[in-house]
Write a structure and sequence with these properties.
- With about 280 residues, the chain is α/β, with parallel strands linked by helices.
- It has a single domain, classed as Protocatechuate 4,5-dioxygenase, Chain B, CATH 3.40.830.10.
- About 35% of the residues lie in helices and about 25% in strands.
- The strands form three sheets. It has an eight-stranded mixed sheet, with helices on both faces.
- A hairpin with a 2-residue loop joins strand 10 and strand 11.
């Protein structure tokens, strides 16, 4: 039998990579986020994780759910939206075809349109690459990346998350599940993308709701959070419809989840969006 050994909501903002450039003014601002991603990787390795399943809100699909089931993820990535921030970032990570196909099959049994792909030219998106750069740099664990469909319903993403947990439980893997995406995601307009944009949230309303969400998590008031999640995703410009967060909580058990939320870095802005790294502790 398999086991869920780590679950977390993580940031993947490209400014993390920009902060690594020599002399970067962002180094100090992004260091807590970078350090906490590395800490999550250390915890996953310590717990014997054999695979990361990443719900990636930067791999956006127009037609159904897709899973990268390649046995090896290898390439050099330059971001099409921000090539000045992520350029020629090499990655070489093992994949997990068996678990990817098991997730697709479980979701298919529940009525979803899900395809697990083995296509050598299908690379990873930076919603997976950036967290793995810090959490899994030596490829100690396999990687399965799951796309976020733009036109799926809230309930469909919940079904996909539940199917993921069933596939994990029936596998022989020790799995870390990551919701890779922002909290609120209203970005600054182009004309306001000066240096101050890196450290400010574009909407005070969004910032206040983000902070309230973190309070609910730390108080284990998950039912209240889940009941507000559809409105939160809509009114606070959720990245990928917050599909990653829906799938994460579904994999955790939805209303039945009672674990502790451990915030590993301060809430921080990036290009107007709200970001954080939080581990949702599970019994192992």
């Amino acid at each position: 039998m398999g086991q869920l050994v780590l679950a977390a909501k993580v940031t993947h903002v490209p400014s993390l990579m920009l902060s690594e450039a020599p002399g970067s003014l962002l180094r100090a601002a992004r260091e807590p986020a970078v350090s906490s991603l590395r800490e999550l990787g250390r915890r996953a390795k310590e717990r014997g994780a054999t695979c990361f399943v990443v719900f990636d809100t930067h791999w956006l699909s127009n037609f159904g759910y897709h899973i990268n089931a390649n046995a090896r993820h290898r390439g050099s990535f330059t971001s099409h939206e921000a090539p000045q921030m992520i350029r020629d970032l090499r990655y070489d990570l093992p994949g997990d075809t068996k678990l990817a196909e098991a997730i697709a099959n479980k979701a298919g049994d529940a009525g979803l349109n899900v395809i697990a792909h083995q296509v050598a030219s299908l690379g990873l998106e930076y919603g997976t690459i950036v967290p793995m750069h810090y959490m899994n740099p030596d490829g100690f664990a396999k990687v399965v990346s799951v796309a976020s469909p733009l036109f799926a319903s809230f309930e469909e993403s919940r079904i996909l998350g539940e199917a993921t947990r069933r596939a994990i439980d029936e596998s022989g893997e020790r799995v870390a599940v990551l919701a890779s995406g922002s909290l609120s995601h209203r970005l600054w307009p182009n004309k306001k993308l000066g240096p101050e944009a890196w450290t400010s949230v574009a909407s005070e309303f969004n910032r206040q709701v983000d902070l309230r969400v973190l309070e609910l998590w730390q108080s284990r008031r998950y039912r209240e959070f889940l009941d507000m999640l559809p409105d939160y995703a809509t009114k606070c410009n959720g990245e990928g419809g917050m599909a990653d967060t829906i799938m994460l909580f579904a994999a955790l058990g939805w209303y039945d989840y009672r674990g502790t939320a451990e915030q590993l870095c301060d809430y921080f802005p990036s290009s107007g969006s709200g970001q954080v790294n939080v581990e949702f502790h599970v019994e192992t």
